[in-house]
Amino acid sequence: MPATVVRHQDNLTTRRLIAERTPGHSLPAPFYTSDEIFDLDLDAIFGRHWIFVASEAEIREPGDYVTVEFGKTSLLVIRDDDENVQVLHNVCRHRGARILTPGSGSVGNLVCGYHQWTYKPDGTLIWAASAADDFDTSCHNLRKVAFRSIAGLIYVNLSDEPNDDIDEVASIVEPYFEQHQLKRAKVAKQIDLIELGNWKLTMENNRECYHCDMHPELGCTYFITWGYPEDAIPPHLQETHERYLSAEAELERKCVERNLAFKGIEELDTRTMGFRVQREALDGEGESYSMTGAKLVNKLLGDFDDAKLGRLSMHTQPNFWCHFMADHAITFAVLPIAPGRTLVRTTWLVHEDAVEGVDYNVDDLTYVWRETNAQDAAFVELAQIGVTDPAYIPGPYVPSEYQVDAFCNWYIDKLNTHLDAEAAE
Amino acid sequence: MPATVVRHQDNLTTRRLIAERTPGHSLPAPFYTSDEIFDLDLDAIFGRHWIFVASEAEIREPGDYVTVEFGKTSLLVIRDDDENVQVLHNVCRHRGARILTPGSGSVGNLVCGYHQWTYKPDGTLIWAASAADDFDTSCHNLRKVAFRSIAGLIYVNLSDEPNDDIDEVASIVEPYFEQHQLKRAKVAKQIDLIELGNWKLTMENNRECYHCDMHPELGCTYFITWGYPEDAIPPHLQETHERYLSAEAELERKCVERNLAFKGIEELDTRTMGFRVQREALDGEGESYSMTGAKLVNKLLGDFDDAKLGRLSMHTQPNFWCHFMADHAITFAVLPIAPGRTLVRTTWLVHEDAVEGVDYNVDDLTYVWRETNAQDAAFVELAQIGVTDPAYIPGPYVPSEYQVDAFCNWYIDKLNTHLDAEAAE
Amino acid sequence: MPATVVRHQDNLTTRRLIAERTPGHSLPAPFYTSDEIFDLDLDAIFGRHWIFVASEAEIREPGDYVTVEFGKTSLLVIRDDDENVQVLHNVCRHRGARILTPGSGSVGNLVCGYHQWTYKPDGTLIWAASAADDFDTSCHNLRKVAFRSIAGLIYVNLSDEPNDDIDEVASIVEPYFEQHQLKRAKVAKQIDLIELGNWKLTMENNRECYHCDMHPELGCTYFITWGYPEDAIPPHLQETHERYLSAEAELERKCVERNLAFKGIEELDTRTMGFRVQREALDGEGESYSMTGAKLVNKLLGDFDDAKLGRLSMHTQPNFWCHFMADHAITFAVLPIAPGRTLVRTTWLVHEDAVEGVDYNVDDLTYVWRETNAQDAAFVELAQIGVTDPAYIPGPYVPSEYQVDAFCNWYIDKLNTHLDAEAAE
């Protein structure tokens, strides 16, 4: 049947599913399992909103690139000869061959492996052998993608008319990141992990610490009272909470002294580019994600002279979170592959002058989050299998999961906006 | 399009396929290959009829459990603290995580691995940390599934209004099983085998011995004239048939003497819960499924003092058959995974006091049916590949395959009943 | 919904896609990626046109067979007891089991492994044990498929009313193959390679040498100026072109002298059974596909006494090409498995009296095309991944890719013809 009819009917089904959603509860199963909803997510969410793809520290020199895959899309994030960032579709304009295979590296020009059509790192076609006389190379440059860097964090927007909420969000959050000087950082390690669950389960899992008793390594430094309302701290975490309050007081003093932004701002479901940013204290030594809380990199980021600055954490809807400490930073990109498969790309960043084996050790640097990610992947898989069971009924979030609920609210709202726009066409 | 419209159109397609079926012939291809029919099977057959899942011998003590998976469903068959059987959906009522991973074992309580919501073995929610003040635990118990034990064989029914034909079937067949005393048995071995074919091909394969020349190990004891009409015994099996008649006469004498039910009752396609039950003689020593027919377990089931009691075999539509000898019993559960994938779970049961390595040896005990199952799996795979070929035309069953036809009749009749009920809604 | 309605709606979608195709450009993505179009290809193209399946040299003796699989179809190409070729559906007429597993070999009769129904190599059912009294074996022979041998190359047509364009094509091309005497050849080696791309990408890749700089081994003998218009030879191939012209002149003299057909005939998109045939010179020693161009088999095909006869190459739409040299021949069959999976079966044929290890060495014989096929498989995979990307836009073929365009024209025309015929039903 005509595509418009199909779309209309699919949209009716989605509207009904949306209507079935009970606020404060997990989503109806098809949002996690259906192929149609997954395609809709790629269109309405990953095709219209600002998606984190990489940080500038991943492409420091001209020709440096990293590819980013989600759905069937492959993007090429590359630094061009003028040292500008470019984001290009990784598809040759001749017969569509993939130009660079997934990964990162450095190139002079972008040469398609099939018939050697050659593009500059900014996407300009400069060579197509034996083309017809009337062939216009300028019509066959690689397709560009809109992007914006927030303090060195690169976001893309696949829409023809990207929303501009990112400008205001950038102006709010950039001050928090300033002193970490991400542009002077480099990649210490990047790990791609495939979680056997829907991308939304990955995001939901990250928005609550209700499960954090199951993260022993993370719990050495991360106050696992995170997300609990003041009056709902469980008894076994009361002592932790006391330490948290005292550590927070110390951190606040330091931040004021050093002009470091720290105040929590939470607009997870109240704007187009939902986000949350806050600098918070760490437990133990309070410096970094180690087993004791002591720093993991001797050379600190930017020009910091104090390692004990807690963690600056930011979350942006729909696919990003990060932690910036004084000694290193970690970014997380959530990239949907299929309804039940999601890539989580974790990148550890250190000062450009930090020397591996001298200033830091990669195994130690990555230990806590490697363990934590593996534990989270297991939770996401359990959840995916369970919500696929016909017996699954959406269940209630507890108060400390209010940010999960906010994520779902944001998501449902953006679907509605998208469907309204389609209906108005 | 609206789900009801889709369902109506799918139903029209199914009705047409049903109309295409020629009695006495194998089913049209989509019944074996289509995703839509597979979903319908899970709904109309596995969602409405009595499905064998386990025997009570598999869960002897409080906390003992075994999971059973078919389609996307996972059931938890468990013995509760009051020593009662419970069948629960294996899905947490919080955010839907799978509670126990597939397998068997023993637990104190059922603790979800994600956020530690804790349920008693009877499904009662007893702990949800930091829930809201108005949270009502009693509304969040694990969902229960209707079940009924026939002589220790546990059947479940996923329907909200389970049909009650199982009561009458139970009253008919229980006398056959009484003296085997399944409740005093234990598991000697359980093997899960995945057959690369539709579940109906697995069932059809089991309802005829026309292929039994290809089961050399089974043929040592099983009279492979089984299913042949008296006047259609093939010449090469005439001698076997003579031995069968003589063995049957001896078995009948014994059964009468010992008050053991033995008479064949066959209602495969003439009632809601189609079944067949009969005690029949075995060849060779006549005691058990060994290569000579000699018993494989020294300690006999129940209080038997004679090993030569043939095999008590029962078949229930849609997913079960079994063989109970004097020395051990074997149950077979057929569990659909996908249109072309089926799990066959075979369980060997012995007297609870039989000692492994002394009274029996697991390799010997399981040998004949491990070989037979592997041969059958190969046949089912050949059939699945062939019926998927566009050149496949349903072919005629021969007279000794009349029970295969009865299985198909039962299946088609139950689909019709289901579609009629849906149409009446 | 009724199948006819579904078909009508699918056809509308296909018509729209066809309308979107720009001549001179690669096809819109769904032609390479969609399940529906793949099914249509199997129906409209592989179900109606003449498909190459094997050469007679693969089945020299009664009982010799080779199976050929595409889509869900398995065909049995077999030599019967009267030494005639037969092509049969590889599906038992009883309950549909696959009769022979994929591969080649030799049989006395065709015995189904499930219930031993037995057929002669010509498909006649000769044994069905214990069938009913009124069972008519003559109604249950294996289903036959129309076929035609062109100079020993066996083509099948699955349609009930095969088009007869093959007769005229045969009369045109058979003279070219006569002296190679394929019926006196035997298989030296057959290799099945799975390419991770749509079958049309495999065919397209074969219809141009624009990518041949990436085939170093092939380029030792194959003039990689092939396909370039005279006025568009790239500068770096000018020297090659000079050698080509001189080699062609020599070959033409020889062909005239020996009454060998050599003139190029190209009707790729101008008739029902599109084809191209031509004898062309080889580079280097000019004899065969070796690294120097020297012959690879001492015993030449047929009664040739001169090894330097270049290559006789033929292409037939939709799934075949071949190269016949004086010393050996190579056939290529392209067999679709799934939208993104294609089997390429390459068969090396030598004189029946050539002795392995004496007259030829299999590793050397197959080296150039094993390397070339592997390189092509990589290109096809790159193309498949790229056209699956939502950012893919069909791109322009360059002049030397005009035969790729002709393939697409033929394909689109045949789809239109098929849809017209369906609409007229």
UniProtKB/TrEMBL annotation, chains A, B, C:
Q: What is this protein called?
A: Rieske 2Fe-2S family protein
The cofactor named in the record is:
Fe cation
Q: Which SUPFAM superfamilies match?
A: Bet v1-like, ISP domain
Q: Which Pfam families does the record associate with it?
A: Rieske, Ring_hydroxyl_A
**Species of provenance:** Microbacterium enclense
Domain annotation Rieske: ranges: 50-156
Mind telling me which CDD domains this protein's record contains? RHO_alpha_C_GbcA-like, Rieske_RO_Alpha_N
| Gene3D superfamilies (alphabetical) | Naphthalene 1,2-dioxygenase Alpha Subunit, Chain A, domain 1, Rieske [2Fe-2S] iron-sulphur domain
UniProt keywords (A-Z) are: 2Fe-2S, Iron, Iron-sulfur, Metal-binding, Oxidoreductase
Matching InterPro entries: Rieske_2Fe-2S, Rieske_2Fe-2S_sf, Ring_hydroxy_dOase_asu_C_dom, Rng_hydr_dOase-A
Gene Ontology molecular function: any one? iron ion binding
